[in-house]
Amino acid sequence: MFIRFEGVGMESVVKLNGKEVGKHEGAYAAFCFEITDFLKIEGENLLEVEVSNLKNDNVVPAAYDLQTRFGGIYRPVKILVKEPTCISPIDYASSGIYLHQSNVSAKQADLKIDVMLESLNSHSNVNITTAIIDHKGKIINKVEQKTNITKGSSSVSLNTVVNKPHLWNGRKDPYLYNVETTLTTKDGDVLDKVTETFGFRHIKFTPNDGLFLNEEYYDVYGVSRWQDWADEGFAVTKKQDSIDVELMKELNCTGIRFACYQQDYYMYNAMDENGFLCLAEIPLTPPNIESEAFHNSSRNQLKELIKQLYNHPSIILWNLLNEVHPSAENLQDLNDLAKELDPSRPTAIVYNKKIETEEDVNWHAIPDIICSNKYPWWYNHYGDVYANAAYSMIVIKRLKNTYPMQFLALLNLVLEVA
Fold it and tell me: Do 132 and 33 share a structural domain?
């Protein structure tokens, strides 16, 4: 048995029947603990969750400079009851299924399925089956493998080639399949089943010609979304989330930035279903603190972000920071970690700093993509850099000259409207 929290701010200690089950730091990602050994079979069980949103320089974000550190349990909590051998829900609270697509075209696509397993005992001759199911409920591809599962945590990989996949094509045609992975015993008894929605697509960023979706040029324009509402804070409802999605559609957006932290699963599912391209990011926002604990908090939240959101076709890149400047060593470490977890997507940073020295040039060259926030008439404490919108384009041109092989993006542009 497991307990899964989808969002608790900021630091949590979970206890069951007076015993500590686990701790979690960070307000934006889900976390999951196994509680089997803490349960009473008979009688009542007492669950306690201690939550703090006090300022803590060891947990990202460290202060209230950019966003309010709302406290409390503000997203759903679920109890998961599974067989002794199951698809793991405790690999950084992911689904336990990772779908790696490559060589995607209208003719075919390669798909590797990584299945994370958890078992209380050894189990022989377990059959793992993954079926890809279209909108009509038809199985268009099926792959299976027999394996012996050891006690504890393990993983199995399956590979298949999908012929003539219906591509996920952004706002034009956001086609999604159901990818159903099932564990069965040698006698055919179902141990576990996990279904992920998934879209086949190919994204390419080019420094001179822009972004291409499935080998066709694709314009990306839209808005930057924060999850809080007036008088609600972070504790928003699905109805309020859906209002934001409808506004995005009304504005004819094609891309969304989820700033400056991981947001509710409903929103990423909505991006998949409606064909928005989106940027996902960790809450590494002002102030930056150069300490091992602070950096480890960034690393852990990056792992949670990528593992929990890996299968979403709408996500096209991982953003490592917003308007902070960690050391080159720490930025390189985050970039390397993102590449290790997901080699298929590019990394990005969102900066707001003049590039004046060789050290600045080298720092900005670490990620794949440089994104720029521009706030004319707002960031005036930086001097004339943000004095007017025209200067934003001058900065972009300077960046282009400095980094001719990197993709550049303008993320936040706020203008004064009379």
Answer: no
Question: What pLDDT is stored for residue 408 in this prediction?
Answer: 59
- The residues with which 157 forms a beta bridge, in sequence order, are 114
Note whether 78 and 186 are same-domain residues.
no
pLDDT tens-digit map of 353-400: 667 788 887 888 899 988 877 665 555 544 444 444 445 555 566 666
Same domain? 77 vs 125: no
Query: In angstroms, rounded to a whole number, what is the distance separating the alpha carbons of residues 301 and 353?
Result: 24
Under 8 Å CB-to-CB from 93, ≥6 apart: which residues? 4, 29, 30, 31, 32, 304, 307, 308
In this predicted structure, the answer to whether residue 414 has a pLDDT above a threshold of 50 is: no
**Average confidence (pLDDT) over 265-283:** 97
Q: Which domain holds residue 153?
A: 97-198
The residue among 278, 311, 309 whose CA lies nearest residue 101 is 311
Catalytic-residue membership of 323: yes
R_g over Cα of the chain: 22
| Strands 47-52 and 177-184, sheet pairing | unpaired
Indicate which residue of 196, 323, 359, 416 is catalytic: 323
Q: Is residue 26 part of a domain?
A: yes
Domain total for the chain? 3
Q: For residue range 281-308, what is the model confidence (pLDDT) as tens digits?
A: 999 998 999 999 999 999 999 999 999 9
Quote the CA–CA distance of 288 and 291 in Å, as a whole number. 9
Q: Which two tokens stand for residue 188?
A: 């055919």
The CATH number covering residue 43 comes to: 2.60.120.260
